[in-house]
Amino acid sequence: MEAHYFIGIKIPAFAAAALEQARSSWGMDRHKRYTAPEDMHLTLLFIGNDPHEEIAQAAEALKEIDAAAFELTINGIGVFGNPATPRIVYAATGESEALRKLQANVKEKILKFQMNPDLKPFVPHITLAAKWKGGPPIEPDWQLEPLTFPVDSFAIFRIAPGHKPKYIEKYTYHLKEGV
């Protein structure tokens, strides 16, 4: 299988542990996949495969991004799909102009290459559970205390199915001090 990539923000260990603890308290058992704490991230741009072997060039282009570190707050839970049988359950973030600008800069750099990134509208989220496996519909009562963490870097990740961690940082970019 050829390598697939995405650009994202790794969630700090303390925040990932808090998300895992909250998720465990919800008694979720109707999904096929649960994101391990060490794999929790916020995707800025999904790239997929690299048919023209441009990932190293794209990595160089991303070095040009000049952005300051910022804070991000997880402030709720959302779903993709039917709320009673959600395809994805995720931790949602509050609105952040710094995050939106970073995502737009990343997208602009990657679009210069022959890659085929996912260009759906950006919905900042941290996937907690995926792939509904069936059973009766749920009536979610998911509680999550707001949680703020610093964002001081982003990375290109290679997806490594069957490995732990599943998402391997290949290139990391540090943001300027500013938090």
UniProtKB/TrEMBL annotation:
Gene3D superfamilies: Cyclic phosphodiesterase
EC code(s) of this entry: 3.1.4.58
GO molecular function: 2',3'-cyclic-nucleotide 3'-phosphodiesterase activity; ligase activity; RNA 2',3'-cyclic 3'-phosphodiesterase activity
Matching InterPro entries: Cyclic_Pdiesterase, RNA_CPDase
A Pfam family matched in the record: 2_5_RNA_ligase2
Reaction(s) catalysed by this chain's protein: a 3'-end 2',3'-cyclophospho-ribonucleotide-RNA + H2O = a 3'-end 2'-phospho-ribonucleotide-RNA + H(+)
Keyword vocabulary terms for this entry: Hydrolase, Ligase
Segments carrying motif HXTX 2: 125-128
Stretches that traverse the bilayer: none
Span of the annotated motif HXTX 1: 41-44
Active site (UniProt): H41, H125
Physiological role: Hydrolyzes RNA 2',3'-cyclic phosphodiester to an RNA 2'-phosphomonoester.
Family: Belongs to the 2H phosphoesterase superfamily. ThpR family.
NCBIfam families with a match to the protein in the record: 2_5_ligase
Protein name: RNA 2',3'-cyclic phosphodiesterase
